[in-house]
Specification:
The chain is α+β, with helices and mostly antiparallel strands. The protein has 3 domains: 124 residues, no CATH class; 81 residues, Alpha-Beta Plaits, CATH 3.30.70.20; 65 residues, Alpha-Beta Plaits (2-Layer Sandwich), CATH 3.30.70.20. The protein has 9 helices and 19 strands. Strands 15-18-19 form a 3-stranded antiparallel sheet.
Length: 302
């Protein structure tokens, strides 16, 4: 029973990739982009010539119940650590590989479930135990490019990348679809000043100005925009950094994070990867947070 990723809902933000201690989740780039993960199938265990891998039973508490799951255990003292590894040649996901840092063998799932905790939209579950919470937004019939207000966090990135100035932010009574779980304090970004304002505003597309290019669909960090045709998220790179000397531990960043991904313990702890909406960076009163967001074709978002 491996982890299960709802690929239709996945934001490809790589928060799960960064959270996984053994590199058991990867995102493939390019036109055939996909998210892959260890299936805990045991093929690597059977292939290992030194019995350095083992398929173990593990008791975990999931959704308040104790269940027995399977995980892969690695004994580094018995591993040849050859590159490429023999086990990797038999992995159906082609995910096992040798890296420089410990654990040198990467790509096997230890069922720590950190990926489930890291996913900002609940798109990860455990097969046969708990289904992913997420459901992809359904595009409304007869609509062109459309913003789902319950999914929009008001980050205004869509407005910044729109070539026709067809997007504005408007007030709404629609709650963010993860508001209850995340206890989010609604804010929005003024596209003109890039300042964070209190209140609930979401993007709205002017159908008369919209050319249907779907650039906003590709750029939306939270997957809040859909088009009549299938549009894949544009590959993006995210680098998050906190200046701990500058941080005053006020917690504003945690309050405005729609994914409940930031912890404050003296200083802010921002995850290595996230959707990249930049609300925390823009809201920080001392400029201690830097979210570097760049897209393959759109470039860096200021």
């Amino acid at each position: 029973m491996p982890i299960e990723i709802d690929k239709d809902s996945c934001l490809y933000c790589e928060a799960c990739v960064a959270a996984c201690p053994t590199g058991a989740i990867r995102v493939r780039r390019g036109e055939d982009g996909d998210v892959i993960n260890c299936l805990v199938c045991g093929a690597c265990v059977k292939a290992c010539p030194n019995d350095a891998l083992e398929l173990e039973d593990l008791e975990r508490e999931i959704d308040g119940e104790t269940v027995t799951v399977k995980r892969i255990a690695w004994r580094p003292e018995d591993c040849d650590k050859e590159d490429p590894p023999v086990c990797g040649q038999h992995c159906p996901q082609e995910i096992l590989r040798i890296e420089d840092e410990y654990p040198e063998l990467q790509g096997y799932c230890v069922m720590c479930l950190r990926c489930m905790e890291a996913c900002p939209i609940g798109a990860i579950g455990v097969k046969g135990v708990t289904e992913p919470e997420s459901e992809p937004p359904e595009h409304p019939e007869g609509k062109g490019v459309y913003v789902h207000p319950e999914r929009c966090v008001g980050c205004a990135i869509c407005a910044l990348v729109c070539p026709n100035d067809a997007i504005e932010l408007v007030s709404t009574d629609e709650e963010f679809f993860r508001a209850e779980e995340n206890e989010w304090s609604p804010v929005y970004v003024d596209p003109e000043t890039l300042e964070v304002e209190q209140g609930r505003k979401v993007a709205r597309i002017d159908e008369d100005k919209c050319a249907g290019c779907a650039t906003c669909v590709q750029a939306c960090p939270w997957g809040a925009i859909t088009a009549p045709q299938e549009v894949s998220p544009q590959p993006r790179e995210i680098e998050n950094e906190v200046d701990e000397d500058a941080c005053i531990g006020c917690g504003v960043c945690a309050e405005v994070c729609p994914g409940n991904l930031i912890e404050v313990d003296g200083v802010a702890k921002v995850p290595e990867k996230c959707p990249g909406c930049k609300l925390c960076e823009r809201a920080c009163p001392v400029d201690a947070i830097k979210i570097r967001l760049s897209y393959e074709r759109l470039g860096t978002i200021k």
